[in-house]
Design brief:
The protein has 141 residues and is of the alpha+beta class. It is built from three helices and five strands, in the order αααβββββ. It folds into two domains: 85 residues, no CATH class; 47 residues, SH3 type barrels. 48% of the residues lie in helices and 21% in strands.
């Protein structure tokens, strides 16, 4: 128990508290804490036919779902939204990089077929799907 108190003090005293550190620290406590509460409750019943549970049995599962939402699902949808706005704001003359790592300048666009024509070298033009554009060059993230 003393180790947990010291760890909590260190976590509180750190100036830069990262949410992933907090989640990584408290997730095992949530999961195993819920299991321990159920175990202690079952031990104290005296062997009667009482069924434990209720919402306490689902708390670890609910905590995992919430953590997955904030650490995985929400950032991914944010990235998708940013990429979609990038693709809608592309114009001729923009310097871009594709998902394959090819650099080029946009010289033509076809919104009907969702294509972009990139100039990658002198007299070399290549067609790409608009969705294969990874980002603009020289733009701050």
């Amino acid at each position: 128990m003393k180790k947990f108190k010291n760890a909590i003090r260190k976590l509180k005293s750190s100036k830069k508290t990262d949410s992933s550190k907090v989640v990584c620290f408290f997730l095992p406590l949530l999961i195993f804490g819920g299991v321990m509460v159920e175990t202690v409750h079952a031990m104290g019943t005296g062997g009667g036919g009482q069924q434990g549970g209720g919402i306490a049995a689902f708390l670890p599962l609910i905590a995992i779902v919430v953590i997955f939402y904030f650490l995985l699902i929400r950032p991914q949808t944010k990235r998708q939204r940013e990429h979609k706005t990038l693709l809608t704001t592309l114009r001729k003359g923009d310097k871009v990089v594709t998902n394959s790592g090819m650099f080029g300048t946009i010289v033509g666009m076809d919104d009907k077929e969702n294509k972009v024509v990139l100039k990658v070298a002198e007299n070399v033009k290549i067609e790409f799907l608009k969705s294969s554009i990874a980002g603009r060059i020289g733009e701050e993230p």
